[in-house]
Amino acid sequence: MIKKWWHDKIAYQIYPKSFYDTNGDGIGDLKGVIGKLDYLKDLGVDIIWLSPIYQSPFVDQGYDISDYYKIDEIFGTMEEFDTLLSEAKKRNMYIVMDLVINHCSDQHEWFQKALADPEGAYGDYFFFRKGVNGNPPANYRSYFGGSAWEPVPGSDYYYLHLFAKEQPDLNLDNPKLRNEIYTMINWWLEKGVAGFRIDAIGNVKKDPTFPNLSPDGEDGLGDAGRMIAQAEGLDDLLEDLKINTFEKYQAFTVAEVFYMKDENLEKYVGENGHFSTLFDFSTQELALGEHGWYENGPVLFEDYREALFHSQLKCQDICFLTNVIENHDQPRGVSRFLPDYAQNDAGVKMLGTVNFLLRGLPILFQGQEIGMRNCPMDSIEEYDDINTLNEYKTALAAGLSQEEAMKVCFRQSRDNGRTPMQWDASENAGFTTGTPWLKVNPNYKEINVKEQLADDDSVLSYYKKLVALRKCEQYKDVLTYGRFAPLYEKESDIFAYKRTLDGQSVIILANFGAEDKTLSLDGIFPEGAEDFTFSPDRILLNNLDDLFVEGQQLTLKSCQVIVLYAPGA
Ligand code: TEU
Ligand code: CA
Fold first, then answer.
1. Which residues make up the environment of ion ligand 2, defined by Cβ < 5 Å?
2. What's this model's pTM, rounded to 2 decimal places?
3. Which contiguous run of DSSP H or E holds residue 308?
4. Mean of the pLDDT values across residues 105-128?
5. Of 345, 365, 336, the residue nearest 18 (C-alpha)
6. Is 64 tagged catalytic?
7. Which residue in 185, 283, 537, 548 could disulfide with 245, CB within 3.0 to 4.6 Å?
8. Kind plus residue range of the DSSP H or E element containing 269
């Protein structure tokens, strides 16, 4: 594996609207990000990915961009962005922007011009098609519900939108548009951003014949993703994008792709792949129901472990993934992946440890480092997210009661990850002096940065130890490049693996069960290390004060995780 500058780094996702508000309007801003750089530096963060801060009507919270060259005024100014870049640089930190090019906002000037004249030059920047017998051109269901085709008033044209109707899809096959997009990307790279997180990129290639699909729901529609899955030519498009932009700047790129096929990994993120890396969404995919969130079951531990083991094993000879437990589109990882008995600091630290030390780039989502949880909302009106409102409707239409549909939202809503960052125990969690744009989780008095900074045993202090371990001279190489091998796969409730490089191993042993579990440490070490005997000084990290060992028999308490050093072949 050729080493890249970002391999041994720690990344952090900021959802700017909910990070820190400096002017009391209830909305996080760029000054807020600048003000918290030292906090992030102290945590050990190197790379910061900012969810979209471009000019936007915020129908989908900034993922609907109306001007790619402007910072939205709710976040601040371009001068402030430049300050952020230089302040980050001073601290050896990198800024990564969100790149949303599958679609733009219906308020973008391109779309306004196209709408006025679908047959004119700008019409081909999008997908305008004529309806058939008064119906849309094809029976696609958009990802946010309803038809993916929106009629153009006063004409028989419709335009395609895979997401909300205010997010028309861009036609990247149009050479003029492609050029505009490349110019824009290079403009940001020239400015000094280190790279991009690339939104919904698997969707950019359509099947231009737009065939009808066999219906997969009561609405007679078929999931638009099925048309995307059969579109041809995506690889050429992505390669062209890379060559004309990212590659010239050695930019870091992380692609957002769901249901990545094993056989496509090499092309996407292999040595000469389209992108630097890609999120491992294998555990998020476990929670996706076929017809909507209301069908999503709980994620079972065995499936969770198997999903991660599978992606670790398939990737280690090909690429370097990015590991997440949550983001702005997902419920909080702690709420999703930990059972009731593990909803405590030990459980949170355990989940963090097993993810953080996997092979790949760890990326923390804001608030993960303090163990933020899903946020209970009192009524559907308290939710903001367009996707949540649609899934609520879908659940009601499927026959769930309002109370049941609210439970679905509590478990699944994207707003769970978007509630304001909890900085301290003062009003509004110290996020704003005004009225927060989205409800603050009522648990902020127990879960907040200030208290955890002052407590050596807190989740935050523990995350700092994890970061420090991954970065320390002695274990950095093995924790970055070490091979991954599962351990104790046949033991229920045990999540264990080892990372091995050049005669060094690090072993991670976690007990996700409700009961104590005893493991024999004999036989798990590679050849050449048979003389391994346990001793307490092999412990690099332990999330509990307790340690129960008799000879080579180690007993893990419920929710205990231990990280051990061992020689290894
Ligand atoms: O997400 C794309 C995507 O696949 C999600 O819509 C996902 O299916 C959904 O959130 C699961 O609940 C990206 C952004 O991350 C998301 O915030 C945007 O809404 C979306 O693209 C459209 O830009
Ligand atoms: Ca503000």
1. 21, 23, 25, 27, 29
2. 0.97
3. helix 301-315
4. 98
5. 365
6. no
7. 185
8. helix 265-269
- Length of the chain, in residues: 569
Among the residues of 5-117, which ranges form H helices?
30-35, 37-43, 78-90, 109-116
Indicate left, alpha or beta for 479 from its phi (over 0: left) and psi (-120 to 50: alpha): alpha
Beta strand 553-556 with 361-365: parallel, antiparallel or unpaired? unpaired
For the CA atoms of 249, 252, 256, 262, the dihedral, rounded to the nearest 10 degrees, stands at 100
Spatial CB neighbours of 268, under 8 Å, sequence gap ≥ 6: 238, 255, 257, 260, 274, 275, 278, 319
Mean pLDDT of 463-488: 97
Owner of token pair 């231990």: 562
**Contact criterion met (CB below 8 Å) for 560 and 346:** yes
Strand blocks (E) in 281-405: 322-323, 361-365
Measure 420 CA to ligand 2 centroid, in angstroms. Answer: 12
Nearest residue to 136 (alpha-carbon basis) of 212, 206, 204: 212
Which pair of tokens denotes residue 501? 């490089």
* CA-CA-CA-CA dihedral for 122, 123, 125, 126, to nearest 10: 150
CA 324 – CA 333 distance, rounded (Å): 9
Ligand 1 centroid vs 144 CA: distance in angstroms? 9
Q: What is the mean pLDDT of the chain?
A: 96
Closest CA to 498 of 336, 395, 290, 354: 354
Intra-chain end-to-end CA distance of the chain, in Å: 19
Q: What is the DSSP string of 156-198?
A: SEEEE-SS-TTSPBB-TTSHHHHHHHHHHHHHHHHHT--EEEE
Choose, from 46, 256, 326, 391, the residue flagged as catalytic: 256
199 CB under 6 A from ligand 1? yes
pLDDT per residue as tens digits for the range 121-172: 999 999 999 999 999 999 999 999 999 999 999 999 999 999 999 999 999 9
Ligand 2 mean position, distance from CA 18 (Å): 9
Asked if 38 and 86 touch (Cβ cutoff 8 Å), the reply is no
pLDDT at site 57: 98
Strands (E), 217-342: 222-223, 252-255, 277-280, 322-323
What residues contact residue 488 under an 8 Å CB cut-off, 6+ apart? 494, 496, 509, 519, 524
Residue with tokens 């702690």: 334
E strand spans, 488-546: 494-501, 504-511, 517-520, 539-542
414 Cβ below 6 A of ligand 1: yes
Q: What are phi and psi of 447, to 5 degrees?
A: -115, 100
Q: What is the CB-side half-sphere exposure of residue 50 using CA atoms within 13 A? A: 29
Residue whose CA is at the smallest distance from ligand 1 atom 7: 329
Residues 6 or more apart from 404 whose CB is under 8 A from it? 294, 395
Tokens of 414: 């994207």
